């Protein structure tokens, strides 16, 4: 868990920094989507920090004792809350990004409506997840007393959030692809644009995979300690999904940087014809005087 969290922290911070280099310095066109992706990054950093701390507690604390177990469960609730908020901020950033590309009114309306639906549902899901047992600090006590929201409610809400998360991404990317398909562009340029758009929603792949592991969260209803033995898979996917999403969303904005690097490389690396000319010139320089 720690290694995966660290890897995606490095990836997300690096590519978000490159995004701000491109949008803020190279083309000077920072927008709301950039600030929202920064918000998503900060939330993801908090999520990863809680995940690492939970993993440390599993290794160094006796979770059979009440206080360590209560603290660990509180951190689980907070980690999950930051996961939900990260998906929310990331989705808003993607929505703003794709609204810049889509021009037809009805397509823009579909993107806006899907974003509003996802946002409202995510906000409700966030409140239920955080306060499912009242105060997160009293999670263990209320769990034992049976005062928490049951899995019959939490389970469907988890699955619905996962489906909406992936479905909204696919809606976002489908309309720009239709626009590119009809555009008067070369096939090479079309595939280049489609590739950039698809990169922006790669996180939805992890969202779909995560759906198959959501039921692992159900073990908390049976045994609080057993939850930690069963939860690593869903914890890993809950880290990969937003981490991949943030990284991919930032990669989709880096075309000016890639172009600048390629232009710089072409300028400084001589072509084969240039090398031949250079070799001929050198032979001419070293030709003995009087020999023509």
UniProtKB/TrEMBL annotation:
Keyword annotations: Membrane, Transmembrane, Transmembrane helix
Chain ranges of the Rhodopsin domain: 18-259
UniProt membrane topology term: Multi-pass membrane protein
PANTHER family linked: INTEGRAL MEMBRANE PROTEIN (PTHR33048:SF96), PTH11-LIKE INTEGRAL MEMBRANE PROTEIN (AFU_ORTHOLOGUE AFUA_5G11245) (PTHR33048)
Subcellular location: Membrane
Region (Disordered): 269-292
Segments crossing the lipid bilayer: 6-22, 34-56, 76-103, 110-131, 159-179, 191-213
Pfam families: Fung_rhodopsin (PF20684)
InterPro entries in the record: Rhodopsin_dom_fungi, SAT4-like
Name listed for the protein in its UniProt record: Rhodopsin domain-containing protein
